[in-house]
Amino acid sequence: MQWLNAVIQGILLGGLYALLAAGLSLMFGVMRIVNLAHGVLAIVAAYIGFVFVNNLGVPWYLAIIIVIPIMAVVGYALQWGLFNRALTKGGLAPLLVAFGLAVVLTQLLQEIFTADNRRIDTGTLATDSIQVTDTIYLGLLPVMTFVVAVLVIAGLQLFLNHTPLGRAMRAASDDPDTVKLMGIDNRQVYALSTALALATVGLAGLFIGMKTQFSPTYGDLVLIFAFEAVIIGGLGSLWGTLAGGMVLGIAQAVGAQINPSYGLLIGNLVFLAILAFRPQGLFPKAVTT
Amino acid sequence: MTLLSITSIDVHYGDFQAIYSLDLHVDEGETLAVIGANGAGKSTLLKTIAGLLRPTSGDIVFDGLNISATPPYRRVPLGIALTPEGRKIFPSLTVEENLKVGAHVKRPGPWTLAAIYDAFPLVADRRHRLGVNLSGGEQQATAIARALMSNPRLLLLDEVSLGLAPVVVEQIYDTLPAITGQGTTVLIVEQDVNLAMKFADRVQCLLEGKSVLEGVPADLTRDQIATAYFGI
Amino acid sequence: MSIATGENAPTGVKVKRATRSSWAGLVVLVPILVFLAMAPYVLDRGLQQQLVTLFALIVMATMWNLLAGYGGMVSVGQQAYIGIGAYGLIYLAETLGINPFISVPIAIVIAGLISIPISFLAFRLVGGYFAIGTWVIAEVVKQITMQIDALGAGSGLSLTVLNELSPGRRIAYVYWLGLIAVVLAVGVTYFIMRSRLGLGFTAIRDDATAASSLGVRVTRSRRIVFVVSAVGCALAGAVIAMNTLRITPESIYSVNLAAFMIFMVIIGGLGTIEGPIVGAIVFFALQQWLSELGTWYLVIIGVLAIVITLFLPRGIWGLISGNGKIRLFPVGYRVVSPWTARRGLGEKEPEGA
Ligand SMILES: Nc1ncnc2c1ncn2[C@@H]1O[C@H](COP(=O)(O)OP(=O)(O)OP(=O)(O)O)[C@@H](O)[C@H]1O
Ligand SMILES: [Mg+2]
User: Fold this and answer.
1) Which residues of A touch C68 (CB under 8 A)?
2) For ligand 1, which residues put their CB under 6 angstroms from it?
3) How far apart are CA A183 and CA A167, in angstroms?
4) Which amino acid residue places its CA nearest to atom 30 of ligand 1?
C-alpha cells in the first residue's frame, strides 16, 4: 500500500514538474533559448507570493491572481531588456546571459530574504486531504496542483495550435526572418512567449511555495526537475513532458520510500538511464508525414 | 499614380555593395518585371523594398510615405508583401496555418481564405498538409497565396519560376491575372526573360547592381535586352 | 583535412603562427614565472595561500574556456571533477596512505577516467540542454559522494597528513603545486590549440557541419577536450583541497564554482588563452575588494558578466589586445588571404572569437 501511495504521490508531483517544464520548453521551442534562470524565476514568484500572503495577509488564491501577471510583466521586460539583445549577439550569448541572470537573482534573494527556509501560508490547504481508501489519502493541494497543471498544459497546447499569436510563435520558431514579412515583429513575439513562459512558471513557483519549504537556492532543483521532465518525456511535446514529469515524480517518490535520502538521487539516476538508453525520450514528438 | 518610387539607393552587405544608386518606380495597378543575371541584385532589391535590408543611402517612398527606415513588419500593414526567394514556407505549420500567418495583419481586401482556395485549387487541395511535406510547386503557390493574405497593394514576387517544371510555372503564372485583376500592383523578379516580357507591362534590367535598361516590352529589341542582361 | 597549411596552401595564402608580439610575450612571461617561483622565499604564508586560491581559479577558468571557448560546450558541471580531484586526493592520501603529492596525479587520472563514460551521456545533449545535463551529472556525483561513508558522507573530509610538514614547508609545497598546475593547464591548452586538434576546433567553431564534411572528427575532438578539462578541473580541486585542508560536499561540488568559471572567462574574454587568466585575476581582485559586501560581490560580478556578454563579447582581454592584435600565446593559425579579407563581408564574426 505504501508503494501504491508513493506512485500516486509521484504522479501528482509529475503534474507540477510538467507545469515547471512547460515554460522552459516554450522558450526553447520559440527562441532556442535554454533559460537557465527558469528555476530561480519560479522561486522569485514563490517569494513574491510569500510576501503577499505571509507579510501582507492576502489570501493565497488572490496571491495567485496577483503574482501571475507580475511574472508575465517580468518576462516581457527580461526579453526586451536582455534576451532579445543577447539573441542578436548569437552564439553562446543567450545561454550565458541566462546563467548570469540565474546567479544574480539567486544571490539577490539571499540578500533580501536570507537563506532561511520559507513557506507560503495556506492555512489548512496544505494538510487537508481526501481519503480514497483506508490507507490512501490524497493531499488536497497536490491534487489541486495536478489538476491545474493539466489544465494549463492543455490550454497552452490549444493556444499554440489555434490562436493567431500561438501560430505566430510557431512560425517565428521555424523562421524568425520570414515572420517579419507577415507583418510580425519577431522580438515582440519572443517577449510575449517569455511573458507566457514566466506566467506559467510563476504559477508553478507558487504551488512549490505552498507545498514545500523553499530557499533561494531551491531554484537549482526546480530547473533540474523541469529539464529532466522535458528530456524524459521527449523534446517538443507538452503531453510527453507531462508523462516525463510523472515518471520523474514516481521515481523520486518511490526512491524516497526506499530511503528518504534516496529520492533525488533515484530521480536523477532514472533521468540518466533514459538519457543513456532512450535519448529521444519516452514520448518523442511523432514524425508527421 | 506612382505607388512605389525609389531614388538612388545604395545597398550594402557589410562592406560589399550590391546595389548602386538605383532608381525605380512602379505605378499603381501596373506589373513591373525586374530581370537580370545571377547576382545582379534583384533579390537584394526586393529585400530592400520589403525592409529586410536598409539602403545605406537614397529613399524609398511608398504611396507618398518615406519608408526607407521602416522595419519590415511595419511595411506589411502599409500594403507591401514579399514572396521571398526560396519560398520560405513555415515547415512545421500546415498550408492553412501558413496562410493564416500571412493574414496576421488584417488589411481589408478581396483575399480571404475562401477566395484563395478558389483561385489556387492546388493550395486548397493541400490545405491540411505540413509545409515541410510540400512539393516545390505547392510551396510556391502557397507562398504567393500567403503573401496575398495580407491584401497587399504591392506584391513582390521573387523568381517564382525557379526550379519548377514548365507546366507548373505556367500554372503559377496563370494565377497572375487573377491577382492583378484585383488592382494589385505587382513587381516580379524573373530570370526567364520571355516570361517577364509576356506578363509585364514594363521591364527593368539590372546588371551588377545598376539599372541598365527600362522600357515597355514592345519597344525593346532582343539585342537591347541581351546587351543589358549580360553586359556585353 | 583540406584546410590550408603551410605546405599545400593555395597561392596568395600565408599562414602565420608566432606573431611579433608573442616574442615580446615570452620576454614578459619568463620573468613573471621566475618571480612567482621564488615567491615562497619572499612572500608571507598568508599571501602565498591567497595566490594558491588565484592559481586554482586560473586553472578552472582555463579549463572552462577550453570547453566553451574552443569546444563550444557550455558546462555548468565542471564542479563534479573539482570534487572528484579533491576527494580523490584526500582519500588516497588519508585512507590509503599514499604520499599526497603522488596522490594528486593519481586522483586527476581517476577523474579523467570517470569523465569518459560521463561524456557519452552528456554528449547526447547539445547547447543549453548540455549545460543543464552536466549540472545534473555533477549533482549526481555529489549525491553519490554523500552516500559513501568512507568519503565522510554529508560532512566531508580533512587532509591531515600534510601536517607532518612544517607549516612553512607545507604552504610552500602547495604553492609550487598550484603554480605547476597553472603552467600545466595553460601549457596543455596552448599545446592543444596549436595542434591539429586545435585547428579543427577553430573550424568547428566557425561551422560544425562544414568542418565535419572536411573530415574533422567533431565528436572525438570534443571528447578529448572534455576529458582534458575534467583532468584540469580535478587538478584545481586537488590544489584547493591542499590549500584549505578540509572539504565538504556542499562547497566542493557547489554550482557556484561553475558560476566562478563562467564569469571569469566571460569577463576576461572567451576563446583566447590570455582571457581566462585576465578574468581570473580580475575576479580574484573583485572578490577581495568586495569581500565586506558579503554575497553582493557575486551579484556585482554577475551583472558585470551579463553586461560584458552583451556589450563587450571579447571581454577585457579583447579590449586590451585590440581585438586580438596582441597575442602572448599565438594559438591556431592566422590565415592571411584575400579570401579571409572578403569573407568578412556582411557576415557575423565567428561566435565567441
Ligand atoms: N547575405 C549576403 N551577404 C553578402 N553578400 C550577398 C548576400 N546576399 C547576396 N549577396 C551578394 O549580393 C549580390 C546580389 O545578390 P542577389 O541575391 O541580390 O542577386 P540576384 O540578382 O537575386 O541573383 P539570383 O538571380 O541568383 O537570385 C551578389 O553578388 C551576392 O553575392
Ligand atoms: Mg535572387
Assistant:
1) 92
2) B 13, 16, 18, 36, 38-44, 85, 191; C 345-346
3) 13
4) B39
Single-letter residue type at B14 = G
Measured between alpha carbons, how far is B170 from B164 in angstroms, rounded to an integer?
A: 10
Residue B43 contacts C, CB cutoff 8 Å? no
Q: Supply the residue whose CA is at minimum distance from atom 29 of ligand 1.
A: B39
pLDDT at A230 over 90: yes
| Contact (CB, 8 A) for B142 and B98 | yes
Cα distance between residue C182 and residue C37, in whole Å: 12
- Ranges of chain B whose pLDDT falls below 50: none
**Domain A2-277 is found in CATH 3.30.460:** no
Interface test with C, best of B15, B19, B43, B53 (most C CBs within 10 A): B15
The full set of domains in chain C, from first to last, is 18-332 (1.10.3470)
How far apart CA A91 and CA C128 sit, in angstroms, is: 11
What's the pLDDT tens digit per position in C127-183? Answer: 899 999 999 999 999 999 999 999 998 899 999 999 888 989 999 999 999 999 999
Q: Which ligand is nearest to the CA of B35?
A: 1
- Three-state DSSP class for residue B35: strand
Q: What is the pLDDT of residue C70?
A: 84
Local confidence band at C323 (pLDDT 50, 70, 90 cut-offs): low
Segment A108-129, tens digit of pLDDT: 999 999 999 999 998 888 888 8
Domain B2-230: give its CATH superfamily: P-loop containing nucleotide triphosphate hydrolases (3.40.50.300)
In sequence order, what are the residues at sequence separation of 6 or more whose Cβ sits closer than 8 angstroms to the Cβ of residue C9? C15
**More confident of the two residues A137 and B24:** B24
- How far, in Å, CA of C243 to CA of C50, rounded? 9
The answer to whether C308 faces chain A, any CB pair under 8 Å, is: no
The Cα C271–Cα C64 span in angstroms is 10
Task: Name the residue facing B82 among A168, A181, A184 (closest C-beta).
Answer: A181
